[in-house]
Amino acid sequence: GKSFDPTFMLSCAVSNIICSIVFGKRYDYKDKKFLSLMNNLNNIFEMVNSHWGQLYRMFSKIMYYLPGPHNRIFTEFDALKAFVAEEVKMHQASLDPSSPQDFIDCFLSKMQEEKELPDSSFHMKNLVTTTFDLFAAGTETTSTTIRYGLLLLLKYPKIQ
């Protein structure tokens, strides 16, 4: 009977689905590692949408050298990339190319196939970047769309 903000819960649910596709596992919603990941994502979205983030997007070459809260975003990005890199290392240790279990396994298998090709797009930097993009873009857009749908259902109870 009380009002609540479903933003964080929806982000966790969507992110956990992305985790199952990318990492082949889901996290408990109280897992410290998972909550840290969610906190990093939340901080990144808050910073990108702040006035400092907007200034950075417009004047990135100048803002890069100026002190301010906009510089914290790099720390958040680094933490997320470290999380992904750790997962990739664990996948490399247990990789069975004949039986890929998730996105990372498939990407690593393709890296092995194309390791002799100099122009291959399948390399470690692309794996980390693509995985990061899946989280950033997938979590925010999907959870925002679901939140908007809930808002519409609240506004029009007859349709509900």
Automatic annotation (TrEMBL):
GO biological process annotation, one example: xenobiotic metabolic process
Keyword Endoplasmic reticulum attributed: yes
Any one Gene Ontology cellular component term annotated for this protein: endoplasmic reticulum membrane
Main location: endoplasmic reticulum
Topological relation to the membrane, as annotated: Peripheral membrane protein
EC number(s) given by UniProt: 1.14.14.1
Intracellular or extracellular location(s): Endoplasmic reticulum membrane; Microsome membrane
Pfam families: p450
Keywords for the protein's UniProt record, in alphabetical order: Endoplasmic reticulum, Heme, Iron, Membrane, Metal-binding, Microsome, Monooxygenase, Oxidoreductase
SUPFAM superfamilies listed in its UniProt record: Cytochrome P450
Cofactors, names only: heme
Alphabetized GO MF terms: arachidonate epoxygenase activity; heme binding; iron ion binding; oxidoreductase activity, acting on paired donors, with incorporation or reduction of molecular oxygen, reduced flavin or flavoprotein as one donor, and incorporation of one atom of oxygen
Presence of keyword Endoplasmic reticulum: yes
Top-rank lineage group of the source organism: Eukaryota
Family: Belongs to the cytochrome P450 family.
Protein name: unspecific monooxygenase
